[in-house]
Amino acid sequence: MTARTTAAPRIAVLGGGIGGLATAAFLRREGLDSTVYEQAPRLAEVGAGLVVAPNAARQLRRLGVLDAFRDRAVRLDTGWEFRRWQDGTVLSSENLADSCERLYGEQTYTAHRADLLAALQSRVPAGSVRLGHECVGLDTAGEAYTLRFADGSTAGADVVIGADGVHSVVRDTLFGAAPATYSGLCAFRALVPAPSAPEFARRPAQTLWIGPDHHLVHYPVSGGDLVNLVAFAPAGAYTTESWTATATVEEFLAEFAGWDPRLTGLIRAAGTPGRWALLDRDPLTHWSEGGVTLLGDAAHPMFPFFAQGAAQAIEDAAVLAGCLARGLDDPAAALRRYEGLRVPRTTRLQTVSHGRAHVNHLPDGTEQRARDTAYAQEDPLLANGWIYEYDPEAELDRMAAAR
Ligand SMILES: Cc1cc2nc3c(=O)[nH]c(=O)nc-3n(C[C@H](O)[C@H](O)[C@H](O)COP(=O)(O)OP(=O)(O)OC[C@H]3O[C@@H](n4cnc5c(N)ncnc54)[C@H](O)[C@@H]3O)c2cc1C
Predict the structure, then answer these.
(1) Is 109 an annotated catalytic residue?
(2) Is residue 117 part of a domain?
(3) Which of 39, 217, 314 to mutate to test the pocket of ligand 1 (most atoms within 8 A of CB)?
(4) How many contiguous H segments (helices) and E segments (strands) does the chain have?
(5) Strand pairing partners for 11?
(6) Which domain holds residue 286?
(7) 136 close to 149: Cβ distance less than 8 angstroms
(8) Residue 330 belongs to domain with CATH number
(9) Considering only CA atoms, which residue is closest to atom 41 of ligand 1?
(10) Is residue 136, in this structure, part of any structural domain at all?
């Protein structure tokens, strides 16, 4: 177990995704070294897009990587532009161009995941990332922790951060293996070269077409060179959960038969779309045991319907690094404080993201009309203020003042 120590602890971060690299970057910013163990032979994100909301942009600025990130991102003028499935009637939207920075001090961006990963990686010393290290076990007996890897090698650590995603080995070690359940939903996704995409999909807007049992999202990424397209539909018997599984354009089109004909052109441009089943997990009430904790999707996987999973992983990283840096004499207590600051917020986001699956997929009828009326009366930029205004530094200051 982790002993009280005044020397800097050996910190192992398991997983070199957005959460793991953000953790290493924020620890570095606090003057703490860490080692990232990643199973993949190289750091690369398979193609897909992300919305980087003001709460995530604030953290990129703090790391000093926002300017570099912006070079390849797209600054949005319009966010959460909900459209009716049949004819594209706009039900509501965020006017980001006029208000986002004034309200939250940052803009909203869309980006290719690889560009976000590269921005975070630029703040992590190259020598501290060990690729090709698939962790197969974590021993928690004894004076310190031992990570065991598939190639038979091991590594010791005083603090272990499980940023190893939705199938986390660290979570299984701490809380027992419990496979995620299938949500009944699957996602189709594609990156469409901008010249092949219709004009409406090239606007700097995050657009969501919502209708019975389905919804479809698109926005430009990669400096406008590509349009990210992701669509959600009933999974039926489909249970493959892989970023590399594919579908056909015909299967994709069949799911959206009868929708606004403008979408047909966009879906046709999807080439060979990816397809995967969305997993579901109930929120955990705590994440840490001694000097071991969880972060990002390992701790709180969420449906992508508030576009906040990566943003929450980055916030986790900032809070975790702050707690550890302020509590090096007792890392286990620091991790409990981290968890105490983060669990309520991520649980709320898991819950509201889950709820949106029902709301976005209502069949036409009374409930759908009530939803559309509520959307029309709401300014989502203000309604989502609790998400966008969050600042880990303020949380850490509040914690320090309360101690
Ligand atoms: C369709 C979709 C759209 C999304 N849109 C958005 C969005 O717009 N905005 C947003 O903020 N979020 C979005 N998200 C969520 C976001 O992608 C995730 O929340 C985020 O990537 C989680 O990062 P992570 O680092 O915790 O986990 P992961 O990205 O899963 O990274 C885990 C890493 O750990 C490694 N690993 C796993 N097991 C081991 C092991 N045993 N040993 C060593 N390494 C291991 C993996 O190889 C991987 O590199 C979306 C998600 C989906 C599915």
Answers:
(1) no
(2) yes
(3) 39
(4) 15, 18
(5) 159
(6) 11-77+108-180+282-359
(7) yes
(8) 3.50.50.60
(9) 135
(10) yes
